[in-house]
Amino acid sequence: MLVTGIEILEKAHKEGYAVGAFNTSNLEITQAIVEAAEETKSPVIIQVSEGGLKYAGIETISAIVRTMAEKASVPIALHLDHGTDFNTVMKCLRNGWTSVMMDASKLPLEENIKVTKTVVQIAHGMGVSVEAEIGKIGGTEDNITVDEREAAMTDPQEALKFAKETGVDYLAIAIGTAHGPYKGEPKLDFDRLKKIKEMLNIPLVLHGASGVPEEAIKKAVSLGINKINIDTDIRQAFARRLRDLLEKDSEVYDPRKILGPCRDAMKEVIKQKMILFGAAGKA
Ligand code: G3H
Ligand code: 13P
Ligand code: ZN
Ligand code: NA
């Protein structure tokens, strides 16, 4: 069933587990996510980035995800990932999305608060939940110094002020993860996470979770992370299977015979994440 983001995340927050939020931009990735959720009986968040919207078209991807979510036996939310443009957020509300992220984390704190607060007012009026970001979660390709990395992390006092003034439902925090594949091993600031959870007591979101070691994920969940964003690990599973399949079979040409196995490879990765996050069996 299609449900709001907060419906899924409030339960995760109370019971102490995390729900996977997986990025899609086409039919096969969406099928992989929904099948993984059904097979592990997990609640799930299906999210689309602004780039994903541009690739698939908002009406088309909305229809694909909404149709599959409505038919599913597990709770599914359709979420906008990193909405940096206010108008894009509004378009998602118009297209029946059940969760949106207003990401104004690049703006100064007061401006981030102002735009997030407006989105919260409008979205809540329509029964849609809102995620926002405080601190800056960059990419693994960003060449930044240790000091710059530290400065980008979420300040607990600022996070508290932000949550109080905006009324946001769940908050993405910067504690050392980055988008994309890591070169070395990421070092997460668990003390910061613990402090933020104690002060805010709302569902918290971990971005850039592909490539984070299992033990670090488990610790982050135990300290209060309730939504975990995964994109790169799914993309890599897809590409690995595709390369392997085409290498082994130079005759195959039916897209279904190519994309079907790639879809299964993505599904396996997603199922493992759902189990790791503690979401399996929680639907
Ligand atoms: O946060 C980034 C997500 O992985 C989406 O990436 O902008 O390439 O769709 P994208
Ligand atoms: P990864 O690509 O590192 O999994 O990050 C995904 C993400 O944070 C989407 O918002
Ligand atoms: Zn992200
Ligand atoms: Na990552």
Automatic annotation (TrEMBL):
Alphabetical list of InterPro entries matching this protein: Aldolase_TIM, Class_II_FBP_aldolase, FBA_II, Fruc_bis_ald_class-2
Q: Does the keyword Cytoplasm apply?
A: no
Q: Which residues bind Zn(2+) 1?
A: H82, H179, H207
Query: Its GO biological process terms?
Result: fructose 1,6-bisphosphate metabolic process; glycolytic process
The protein's name in its UniProt record: Fructose-bisphosphate aldolase
Q: Where is the active site?
A: D81 (proton donor)
The protein's organism comes out as Thermoanaerobacter uzonensis DSM 18761
The residue ranges crossing the membrane are: none
The cofactors required by this protein are: Zn(2+)
